[in-house]
Amino acid sequence: MPNIRDLGELTGEVLLFGGVYSNLQALHALMEVASARGIPASHCLFAGDAVAYGADALTCAKRLRDWDCPSIRGNCEQQLLDGAADCGCGFEDGTACDIASKTWFEHAARQLGARAAEFWQSTPDWLRFRHAGKQYIVVHGGTDDVARFIWPSDDIDTFDREISAIQAQTGPIDGVIAGHSGVPFERVISGTTWINAGVIGMPPHDGRPETRYAILSEDGVRFHALNYDVEAAAQAMEQAGLVQGYEVGLRSGIWPSEDILPAALRR
């Protein structure tokens, strides 16, 4: 059984975001967006993966803790808690993603050390909330695999299985908020809406350096570009020795490898 935190009824705008990815500049920009829109931290929902490619794993963990927005564990948090050697994404051995992930994960582990429990020991697996008369669940990847990649191009059966697995734990729902894949999208499957808000720490492989977040309102969900100090984030990675290509991806908006992407999403 997943550990589920119930947020109760949320009103007004709800900011949805995933994948801070140790990108401190993007996190600060997102917090400024929330402040400018008058959205309190209690209505900013984080779908996990506080740390990854960027330089500032520890500082991002601290900022998220101090901001106190409702959050769930991503696979990166879980792997750090478990003292694992990698991010747990299941990349094939020897692929570009596999090789690069070992470097940035080791960097994050060095910064956080044994402090992972301080930040995420009590963080739930899922969130539940009600908004505009609808029931939502926030998950990271898949329902039985926190590191499962679910893409907008996946077939209906994939979504049906995931939604059925969630409802077996929670009862009927109207929508799912997910993270992990890094690509924002919305699909309606048999009356249930699946929303991936995207991630703020890395652009969605579309040739633009802006990253993505989403705003849920009574009119539905809208995706937004996040402008932040890309050059400062990339330079911080270079100074930390994180030069496996993700620092270039921040600037170009193109991922350094398409290993993990389904054919339909490759350029």
Automatic annotation (TrEMBL):
One of its GO terms (cellular component) is cytoplasm. Residues 24-217 form the Calcineurin-like phosphoesterase domain. GO terms for molecular function: phosphatase activity. SUPFAM superfamilies: Metallo-dependent phosphatases (SSF56300). InterPro entries: Ap4A_hydrolase (IPR050126), Calcineurin-like_PHP_lpxH (IPR024654), Metallo-depent_PP-like (IPR029052), Pesterase_MJ0912 (IPR011152). Belongs to the metallophosphoesterase superfamily. YfcE family. This is Calcineurin-like phosphoesterase superfamily domain-containing protein. It comes from Litoreibacter ascidiaceicola.
